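Usage

Read records sequentially. Each one opens with the input sequence:
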Amino acid sequence: ENPDFVQPTRSRNEVLSWVKSGLRDFSVSRANNPWGIPVPKDNSQTIYVWFDALLGYISSLLEPGDEPTIENAIARGWPAKVHIIGKDILRFHAIYWPAMLMSAGLELPEVVFGHGFLTKDGLKMGKSLGNTLDPFSLVGTYGADATRYFFLRSIEFGSDGDYNEERFISTVNADLANNLGNLLNRSMNLIRKNCDLMYELDSSEIDHPFRETASQLATLVPKNLEQLHFTGACQPIVEYLGQANLYIAEEEPWTLFKQGERERAVRCLCTCLEVVRVSAVLLKPVTPMLSDRIYQSLGFPEHQWQGKTAKTVAKDDIRRGPNEQFKRVAPRLCSVQT
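and closes with the structure output:
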């Protein structure tokens, strides 16, 4: 009835194989267990640890001062839209948990999503190997945007993935610092040098395939994000920026200015800046701080940026006039530690 209840496909197939092998009742208590919550009126039994733990997803919704009833807990936000769990505890969340909810007449989460494992340099992480990955250290060194981008861009969500520092730095520098940051800085510096930071036309006046691509991405990217297909959301943006970098390299607006082809040069630069603007909006769920800096560098005030989403990406074209807020976006977000 609900083929998308367990995701991704690998997890769904695993659950289906368990179901096909036959389902059996399970007891909500254990006998003669020295630890656990005692069953009321029967001290020889304790509540099965998974029965107690799974119920915590609902009971934890209660706020301090709430009367501890199931009705009050559910009113605080159940059912969950997406329940994300590790693949090693898939059986408990995709079979036991739904069975508990259904037996109690409670609604199921819309989706149970089993994510994969993370290794480091191809090895399983562990204290004995001394190769654990400290997320606080990673964010402290490279920033939250870069860290979030790498894992969502480079590892298919739901599959196992591997962290390698060189690949981390290479990916972030290539996609964000070079592909995105340099395109912005390159274009803005040429406008500052040749146009005194004046936009000499609206990007809405530009008839270029990039505009049609932007419209397509405004539909595709949110759809992939909603489906937890994060690599599928990031990859087309990277390709979009790559096409713009190729375009500016082919047009050579710096040469066009020298040759007196000012209108063509300006058209190229405004096109590239519009690509950067659209990309900043589309990347906002993944790189919110970087996207904010880029959008404001393009001359948009903060109030115009707040609340900007892919659905409204077409409403803020680059407009004719001065950009007095230009701030350079650092072209290198990360560097190899030596």
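Summary fields computed downstream for this record:
- The first strand starts at residue 6 and ends at 7.
- DSSP finds 13 helices and eleven strands in the chain.
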